[in-house]
Amino acid sequence: NLGDTVINQRYKFELNGKDVSALRDLAHLNIEAKPFHIEGSVIDLENYMLASWNIPYLKINDMNVVNSVGRVEAKGGIAYTSARIDSTFSKSFNMPFMVLTADMAYNKANFSIVTPKVTNLVNNIDLRGTLELIDSTYHMKFSSSAVSFLDRKWNILPDNEIAFRRGYIQTRNLQFVNGKEKIVLSSAGTNGLNLDVTELDINFLNKLKPVPQWKLDGKLNFKANVDDVFTFKGLKVSGIVDSLFINSSYFGLIDFNAHTPTVDQPIQIDLAILDQSRQLIGKGFFDISGKFSNGIKNNYQMKFVFKDYPLRLFEYLMDDIIDNTRGNIVGNFEIN
């Protein structure tokens, strides 16, 4: 009886893409791509699907992806995927290559992300863990492993977790440790986060070369809090470098604070470098949005007052102009 016959349909598909203008118009994004290839197959009654792709170049707005190759295979509620990307970059971001693997069983996935470099200060990433969906909330846990950033290797402590959904985030025991140095990310309410940094050597700044001729040394203790990570409301930052050394010369203690109620408003900044009677006091703002600076984004202003401060600081700032300075300075100046 043909009416009782169940047909197990099998499909194969293949897509050779050359023109993404229709997708660009549909998604309202600036999308560019070189000719790419996607193929796969589907077996209906077995709930089976296999797909693979080879995308030589893809650009979405400012993000560029070079040579993305991968596959995904799924049967019922179980799936496996692996992908390699040779390079991902934008104006402010450059990742040489990344390997991503994941195996998924219904609402749970085991994942690994491997890449040698994300930025100048984030490298040798080998993150492994699990991601599970429980009652509309995602729960991410990292395996005990090591990652490198800020020019040193950090151990991720076990029994950690990040739980998140729209408008909600909670963390548990999310700590990165390197000897006495420690970075802790903890919850603040239901949608805020605290960042606590302890005994961090600031020598990683020398790689950034904020002032090329400076060699910086000192220990940083730092706290940052945001009341709502989804809207970035209520940002507060404070930190102390107990003993600042520039080119092996001692300049005292740095105490700095910054805060803003929202990112649309200027970040208020207070800075003090103190060594007994020697003082450098700074106060100013940084206006990211430009709403308070006649539309000029990333506008800033800082006013400084010096009291009995060593002229040696200016020698280090302008080492090709000033040399062999003596004495201290009293005065003020402004940068904007």
How would you describe what is shown here?
This protein is mainly beta and 336 residues long. 5% of the residues lie in helices and 65% in strands. The protein has three helices and 26 strands. The chain has helices at residues 21-27, 205-208, 312-317; strands at 10-17, 31-33, 36-43, 48-60, 63-75, 78-90, 93-95, 98-105, 108-119, 122-134, 137-142, 146-149, 152-156, 161-165, 168-172, 174-178, 181-188, 192-201, 216-217, 219-228, 233-246, 249-260, 267-275, 278-287, 299-310, 328-335. It has a 26-stranded antiparallel beta sheet that branches. A hairpin with a 2-residue loop joins strand 14 (161-165) and strand 15.
Spatial extent as radius of gyration: 26 Å
The mean pLDDT is: 87
- The residue fraction in helices comes out at under 10%
How many angstroms does the end-to-end distance come to?
85 Å
Structural class: mainly beta
What portion of the residues fall into strands of 2 or more residues? over 45%
Q: What's the shape?
A: elongated
Number of strands: 26
- Please, how many helices? 3
pLDDT below 50 for ≥5 consecutive residues: which ranges?
none
Largest sheet data: 26 strands, antiparallel
* Series of secondary-structure elements, N-terminal to C-terminal: EHEEEEEEEEEEEEEEEEEHEEEEEEEHE
Briefly say what this structure is.
By secondary structure, the protein is mainly β. Helix content is 5%, strand content 65%.
